[in-house]
Amino acid sequence: MPHSDSLPQRRKRLARLAGACLAVAGLGLDALPSTRPGFNSLQIIVILSGVTLALLPSLIPRLAALLRRPRGKDAVKVALLSLVTLFVLEIALVAIGYETYFPQDMPSVLLRPAPWWTCDDRACHYARDEMTRACDSGQMRGRYCIVNAQGFHDTQDFLPGEALQRGAPRVLVLGDSFTFGEDADIGYSYVETIESLLPNALLWNTGIFGVGTDQALAAFKMYAPVMQPHATLLGFYVNDFFDNLFPIDGYLVAIDEKGEAHKLQQYHLDPWGNATKLDMRQIFMYRWRGVEAPANELERLLGATRIGSLALSAVDYLGKQIGLAQQTQRRRAVAQTREYLRELKAGSAALGSQLMIMLIPSLPDLQKPGPDYLQAIQLFEELEIPYFTPRDTLDAEVDYAPDRHWSNAGHQKVGALLADCIAAFYAAGSLSACDQVIMP
Fold it and tell me: Chain-centre distance of CA 126, in angstroms?
C-alpha cells in the first residue's frame, strides 16, 4: 500500500513545486529589460496560474470529499484553508509592494471649488466679478480673463438691442475649448479671426472648455432668442460623445493651496453609462489622484486589500478585452448626442436660423478618420444637418499645439475658411453657397 501511494504523492509535490516556481517567475517578470514598473496582465495571468497549480492538488480532494459527504467539519476545513490561502497571498503581495486598487490615505493637498465657475440655467459659465479678482491676483491669466457680463469668453456683452438693430450677419457660436480658443493667443482664435475678416458681422462666442453638446444646447436656448441669429455654428469635437454621457455640470473647477486651478470630472460612470455625482470627499480622495471612485462600499473594501486589488485589476483587464462596457457606453453616448442635436436643429429652425456644424478632427483623425469622427458624420447625415470639416486643410505639424488643440496657425486657417463661408451664406441666404459645407 505505501508503494501504491507514492506515485500520486510525488505528482502532488511536483505540481506544488511547479506552481510555486511559476508564481515566482511571474513576480520576477518585472526584472526583465524594458519592462514597465507595476503589474501587467501577463504577470497576473502567470501568477494566478502558478498559485492555482500549487493549490489544486490539495483543494480538489477536499472539495470532492465535501461534495460526497457534506459535513460541517469538512466545510470548516475548506473555509479555513481558503482563508489561510488568501492571507498568505495578501502577505506575499504586501511584501512585493503591490499597490492597493484604491488609495488608503487622504492626499496632503487641499482643494476647494473655484468661486468663479458655476453651472445654472444659463449653462456653465464664469462669474465675471470673481474672475476679475482671480485675474488681478495672477491666479488666472491670458484668454481666461476675457469674460463678458454673461460669463463667457467674449469681448462684448450679449445684449439684445445691438444684435437686433444691426443688419449685418449675426452668428451664434457654440462649442467647447476649440471654440473658446484654447492655445490661441488673444486675437488669433478662429472666432476672433472671423471677426477680423468680417468686421461688420456680429458673432457671440459661447464656447466653454470641457463641455458637450448639452452645454451648447443650453447656451442656444438662453441666447438665440436674444440674438435672433441668421446662422448657428456648433463646433463639435470628437470627444463630445463621451462628454454627453455626463450632466451639464460634468466638471468641477477646483483650486489647490497654491491657488492653481484644476478641472476635475465630478461624476462616476458605471459600465452601462449611468453617471453618479461624487461628493467633495470622493473627488478629493480619488478623482484628484486620477483614480476612479468605488461604485459602492463593498468595492471600496475589496480594493483596500491587495488580493482584492489583484482581482479588481484582473476584472478591469478582462472587461477591456471583451469591450462590453465600452460598447454599451458608446451606444448610449451616440443616442444622447442624437437627441441633443435633434433638439438643437428644431430650435434653430423655429427661430429661422440655419444650423451648421463644424466637425473638429482630432490629431490622429488627420492621418486616418477614427470611429468617433466617422460616427459624427453618420449622425449629421442621418439628422440632415449641414456640416463642414477642415480635416483636409489642416497640417499636423503646423496647425496643432502640443496639447492637441489648434495653434495660432490652425485657428487662423479655420477662421479664414469659415469667414468665406459666412460671407457666401449671407450673400446667397443659404449655406449651400458655401463650397466647404456638405449639405443634406
Answer: 22
pLDDT at 320 over 70: yes
Residue with cell 509592494: 97
Answering whether pTM is above 0.90, one says no
Is the pLDDT confidence value at 355 over 80?
Answer: yes
CA distance 407 to 58: 64
- Answer whether 194's CB lies under 8 Å from 415's CB: yes
List all residues 6 or more positions away from 5 whose beta carbon is below 8 Å from its beta carbon: none
With 80 as the cut, is the pLDDT of residue 184 above it? Answer: yes
Distance CA 439, CA 83 (A): 66
Strands (E), 123-230: 123-126, 170-174, 202-205
What pLDDT sits at residue 295? 79
Q: How much is the pLDDT for 191?
A: 97
Q: 10 Å Cβ neighbour count for 294?
A: 20
Place of cell 476545513: 77
Say which residue, 405 or 322, is predicted with more confidence: 405
Question: Hey, what's the cell of 416?
Answer: 479664414
Please state, in angstroms and rounded to a whole number, the distance separating the CA atoms of residues 213 and 234: 9
Residue 28 and residue 139: Cα distance in Å, rounded?
47
Q: How far apart are CA 82 and CA 62, in angstroms?
A: 11
- With H, G, I as helix, E, B as strand and everything else as coil, classify residue 254: strand
Identify the residue with better confidence: 71 or 141.
Answer: 141
